Prior knowledge:
By secondary structure, the protein is an all-alpha fold. 77% of the residues lie in helices and 0% in strands. α2 (11-23) runs antiparallel to α3 (29-45), α7 packs antiparallel against α8 (133-145) and α7 (115-128) runs parallel beside α10. 41% of the residues are buried. It holds the Pfam family TPR_12. It comes from Agromyces bauzanensis.
Amino acid sequence: MIDRLWDFRDPGASEERFREAADDDTHTAHFRAVMSTQRARALGIQGRAAEAFEVLDSIASGGIPSDDPERDAAEVRARIAIERGRILAADAERRQEAVPVLTRAAREAALAGSPFLVLDALHMLALNDAGHEEEWAAEGFDVLAGSRDPRVLRWGVALHNNLGWTKHDAGDALAALHHFEQAVEVADRYGTAEQQHVARWSVARCLRTIGRTDEALDLQRELARARPDDPYVQAELAALTEAEPTIEA
């Protein structure tokens, strides 16, 4: 249901759909609370952090039914913490505040028995807890190893891609390439078309860093044929072709 209501290209329309779902009293209180967490996420993406926090505070103060089974209550607490952490992480001045919130989210998600939410929290921690990226990613890989659910296994794309950029930015491009290639493999098996595209772009970008520019150029040209208007692909094509030797050189 959440996947059907989300359109990340249009968070405003998504917000309205989640608001309607949260206000529909034909659904259970648990369902409405979950829909409200997604409305908060949509508000956060639009830069309306104060409104998003108000929605999350409202759920926390009165939106979790007292008669919910503990696993359901833990799921709602996990979702509240994940969305609160996501919004905090997007604010450069409050980024470190996100770490304990997301840590709590991972614990609550484990109590809820939801590896999907555990991985959501762990991938956010791997992005935002400077100096501990590999530790959080390793925990995520352990969770993935115990799952056969394709929707859960899709998190491998984000975990490998994010760790790849951590390695790349730290100057270890060969280790980064390994993770980018792993992201491609997972994306091809479980991911979306967008994830497949981004994963391949990351491989090509890393190949340029390593100096394997011919391979990088071939891959970026392949991506350009599929998406000629992608500005990131075009930027890489410019960088790669400008670096090619000319007849005069």
